[in-house]
Design a protein that fits this description.
Elements (H helix, E strand, L loop, with lengths): L2 E5 L2 E5 L12 E2 L6 E2 L5 E7 L11 E7 L7 E6 L6 H13 L4 H4 L2 E8 L2 E9 L2 E6 L2 E7 L3 H12 L5 H5 L11
Antiparallel strand pairs: 1-2, 2-3, 4-5, 5-6, 6-7, 8-9, 9-10, 10-11
């Protein structure tokens, strides 16, 4: 899900929840304009069809990112300018939190951006039980959690996420529970 906002007649894509490869600032809906991401990475939007389309004249916005000027562009996701209503979001969110094929029911994902002197320089991420702090594309620190107790501590110390006792019990019996 992205938000499209209009400021002074210019439309921008704003993505506040995609994670480490996501857009790190609002992007004007202008195809092929390259913007800085986490250095030395870049990001851009294309207005194009995708291979899955049966009508090749159909166009979507494709958000792409790359690690450096010499890396290949990787399409992260695509979106339309169609307006969605609250009932649409309810259904999309229901699927996201209920479907057995959704990554959000199969994994724990957490991301936080690292700033230095007002500039974005890296990310802190957690995928299941592995947490990493990457600054300027170098992994500075890594922690592999073997138990829920360790993961709860890393969530608090690395991300500032403090879980209540009830929230800590909420993972019991799920596929994402660390059993160590």
């Amino acid at each position: 899900m992205v938000n499209i906002i209009t400021i002074a007649g210019t439309k921008y894509m704003v993505d506040v929840g995609f994670g480490g490869n996501g857009a790190t600032s609002p992007l004007p809906l202008e195809p092929n304009t390259i913007h800085e991401r986490i250095p030395p990475g870049n990001m851009r939007l294309l207005h194009s069809s995708i291979p899955q389309h049966t009508d090749p004249t159909q166009r979507l916005w494709l958000y792409q990112a790359r690690e450096s000027d010499t890396s290949e562009w990787q399409t992260q996701y695509c979106f339309t300018e169609t307006e969605f209503l609250p009932c649409d979001y309810e259904m999309m969110n229901f699927w996201t939190i209920q479907s057995r094929t959704s990554i959000f029911t199969q994994a724990i994902l957490v991301a936080k951006m690292v700033m230095e002197d007002g500039r974005l320089v890296g990310t802190v991420t957690m995928f299941n039980g592995e947490a990493k702090r990457k600054v300027r594309k170098e992994i500075e620190e890594r922690k592999c959690c073997a138990s829920e107790e360790e993961r709860v501590r890393v969530l608090r110390e690395w991300f500032g996420v403090v879980l209540t006792a009830e929230e800590r019990r909420g993972i019991n019996g799920l596929v994402t529970e660390l059993k160590g």
